[in-house]
Amino acid sequence: SSNDTFPTAMHIACVEEVVHRLVPALQVLHNALDSKAKEWADIIKIGRTHTQDATPVTLGQEFSGYAQQLANGIERIELTLPKLMELAQGGTAVGTGLASPVG
């Protein structure tokens, strides 16, 4: 039935987009932020916490935090791929295999 075909098609489409477009684009952004973190390692700025001034930090430290958050996000996205690759194809109408050919 189409009740397994549509979810299968959606899973395949999601994996294709995540692997070939989303993750590569996020990696480019991560690399750019990481590069700026290194480039700006010696630029001192005022830190901020809860909308108030705080102890000084470098602009590089701030951008390294952004880069790390992006790396964490990429990892979480990649961890979803094995579950997206599970396909509910061919399980018969209610998933019991009743009335399906043997084998």
UniProtKB/TrEMBL annotation:
The Fumarate lyase N-terminal domain extends over 1-100
Entries under Gene3D superfamilies matching the protein? Fumarase/aspartase (Central domain)
Q: Which GO terms describe its biological process?
A: fumarate metabolic process
GO MF annotations for this entry?
A: fumarate hydratase activity
Chain segments annotated as coiled-coil in the UniProt record: none
| Record protein name field | Fumarate lyase N-terminal domain-containing protein
Source organism: Hemiselmis tepida
**InterPro entries with a match to the protein in the record:** Fum_hydII, Fumarate_lyase_N, L-Aspartase-like
